[in-house]
Specification:
- The chain has four helices and six strands.
- It is of the alpha+beta class.
- It has two domains: 1-39 and 135-173, no CATH class; 40-132, no CATH class.
- Helix 1 (9-37) packs antiparallel against helix 4.
- The chain is elongated.
- The chain starts with 8 loop residues before the first helix and ends in a 9-residue tail after the last helix.
Length: 173
């Protein structure tokens, strides 16, 4: 009797282990691919701005606060974007009116306005921004190629399943 196309217990176990391993590996592959191709978002990052207050109604405008530490290549190729700064009460501050943003350095300084003076004892400022994580490809063609990594990993898993399950042997009969 011809056993071509039949799958034994050993083959089923190997197929199961391969599928579980392959799916487990797809998650980190897609996470790394996302780091390489997508800018990351930080929300509600707290920055203590207590040092800026010289009195209950005055702000020292010369102190810079770091929202995100930018490395050298990020300063020139990938400055912060979509920056939103809110005071401790949650009121959104206006750039160039309430704060000055140094997006290439990932820093800001408060300006002496009524919105920057805390209404309560909340000396925390909340910052939202989009940034390039380490490993981000600044070149669009590099990002296009990196987007293929997950696709080829999924194709490899599909190929393994088709090969080990002998599904392809049943076609053409």
């Amino acid at each position: 009797m011809n056993k071509k196309g039949q799958l034994g217990v050993g083959g089923i176990v190997m197929l199961f282990v391969g599928i579980v391993f392959g799916i487990a590996m797809l998650t980190p592959i897609f996470e790394i691919q996302s780091t390489m191709t997508d800018k990351q978002t930080a929300t509600n990052q707290t920055v203590d701005v207590t040092d800026a207050y010289t009195s209950a109604t005055e702000v020292d405008e010369t102190i810079n606060f770091t929202a995100y530490e930018q490395s050298d290549w990020k300063q020139s190729e990938c400055p912060l974007s979509s920056v939103t700064i809110r005071n401790g009460a949650g009121t959104e501050l206006v750039e160039d009116t309430d704060y000055t943003l140094y997006d290439s350095k990932g820093e800001f300084s408060l300006l002496n306005t009524t919105k920057t003076i805390p209404e309560t004892s909340l000396n925390t400022t909340y910052v939202d921004y989009t940034y390039c994580a380490d490993g981000y490809n600044t070149d669009s063609s590099s990002r296009s190629v990196a987007r293929l990594i997950g696709l080829f990993a999924a194709f490899a898993l599909l190929g393994f399943v088709l090969w080990k399950s002998n599904i392809m042997n049943n076609f053409g009969r």
